[in-house]
Amino acid sequence: MTTKNTFCAAPVRVLREHFAKASPRYLVTNTGNANAGTGADGKRRAVDICAALASKAGVDSNAILPFSTGVIGEPLNSDAVIAGLDNALANLGADNWLAAANGIRTTDTIPKLASQKIDVAGISYHVTGMSKGSGMIRPNMATMLGYVATDANIAADLLREMLSAINEQSFNRITVDGDTSTNDCCVLIATGAASSDIIDSPEHPHYQAIFSALTEVFVRLAQLIVRDGEGATKFMTVNVTDGKTTQECCDVAYAVAHSPLVKTAFFASDANWGRILAAVGYAGIEDLDTEQVDVYLDEVMICQNGGVAPSYTEAAGKTVMSRPEITIHIDLARGDASDTVYTCDLSYDYVKINADYRS
Predict the structure, then answer these.
(1) Which CATH number describes the domain made up of 235-355?
(2) Sorting pLDDT into bands at 50, 70 and 90, what band is 3?
(3) Which of 109, 337, 123, 305 is nearest to 225 (CA)?
(4) CATH 3.40.225.10 corresponds to the domain 95-230
(5) For tag attachment on the chain, is the N or C end more exposed, with fewer CB atoms within 10 Å?
(6) Residue range 109-116: average pLDDT?
(7) Average model confidence (pLDDT) for the chain?
């Protein structure tokens, strides 16, 4: 899956073309340069990298998927990338996930990895993935990259359906700063090494266990991006319940998660909960009865029936706002739907990191 940013990067355009023509065999990623905003020349350079790797690996160039991450608007030195391909091929290894995760970092402070093993009817399945991202994070998949692989034998059409569904619970439910990158991409690969039995429908007896394992890995990778958000000091879960539809719950959650005023209040451990109510109010929910809305910070009810909760104290609010991980629970009291978004606070360091990004 790739970004919905119309100004998508050159490698994203090439990736889409290649994926439509062949099954992927190799993924090649460069860091430090997004190869976005580079016009036709940028696309040519992405194609050249794929062609060079295809020649060295002995595969069709359409089987190569390119990825880039870094500064937008600067020409990519494709010759330097091509010069490193021999060394990259020589160091391929099943145990090199950590090295790869470190290799794709930009402003990330940590490598982001997750793995899960499950046993189903005597067969061991493995799911392993890595992601990168710290800023410009508000993925809108139809600068975040996610690579996940499993040895389950999953039919291609079903694999795409699984990726789409899982993405909506993971990478499409995180935000650091509200910016959708030109380079967002997420890949799910099934090698089939664990079993010759093809999982081709949700009715397959192994499907649900594998779907759950994949979801867990995707969610952990997505949360790692938020936890490592540029300058972040706090991890926040925005949980909206009892809405009429999942979409309205999502809209409310993102309104709160994107609000600079909410995010800076959490950075300051300032229980200015009115900012949360304001965000709920501008989320665009029609006919919302605000006098039915309740809001909690962890176990502390701060708002009851649209006003300050009788049990609430400023001291209790300050205590919960000082925690490194906080759940904002918003009960809309108008249905049975729910949704969850993960975000972080907004600190001085976020401004410093991005002000100094190219210097």
Answers:
(1) 3.10.20.340
(2) confident
(3) 109
(4) no
(5) C
(6) 94
(7) 94
